[in-house]
Design a protein that fits this description.
- The protein contains 6 helices and 2 strands.
- A hairpin with a 5-residue loop joins strand 1 and strand 2.
- Helix 1 runs parallel beside helix 3 and helix 2 crosses helix 3.
Length: 149
């Protein structure tokens, strides 16, 4: 069951969970456990993760970090700047559906999926992009890189 208790109509933005998840990266968390824990705490448990202290506590527990340290990092200007930049990049995609997945390869291919919940389209696109990147690498090993512009 989903629990709407997390929703706080007085909040215009839910910065805390996003900033906490981003701050966890600075503290060595390289996977999605903090983001997933925050999402679970919100939509399954109804926890009000829009509040900084609650978001930091949930994130810290998920990543085995000190909540005060995570909170301080989440409220730092560096994390705020990164979140502002990535939010602007997201809005530049001009998508209106969530979730949105942006896949970019090492050779510059880009795929945007907006509102898709099924794994199959993402999987085949990832496989295709990886195969194309490998083909470019193989070609480059034999014939060199592309000529300079």
């Amino acid at each position: 069951m989903l629990n709407a208790g997390w929703f706080q109509p007085e909040l215009r933005e839910y910065l805390a969970p996003n900033f906490v998840a981003e701050a966890a990266r600075d503290l060595g968390v390289t996977d999605d456990r903090v983001r997933l824990a925050l999402a679970h705490a919100a939509v399954r448990e109804g926890r009000q993760v829009g509040r900084w202290e609650i978001a930091a506590e949930v994130g810290a527990r998920a990543a085995d970090l000190e909540a005060a340290m995570l909170l301080a990092r989440a409220q730092s200007p560096e994390v705020a700047a990164r979140c502002k930049t990535t939010t602007a990049e997201f809005h530049a995609l001009q998508v209106s559906q969530r979730p949105t997945f942006l896949l970019e390869s090492s050779i510059g291919d880009r795929a945007v999926f907006s509102g898709i919940w099924a794994l199959a389209p993402l999987q085949i696109t990832l496989e295709t992009m990886a195969a194309d990147a490998a083909a470019y690498t193989t070609h480059g090993a034999h014939f060199g890189g592309p000529p300079p512009e």
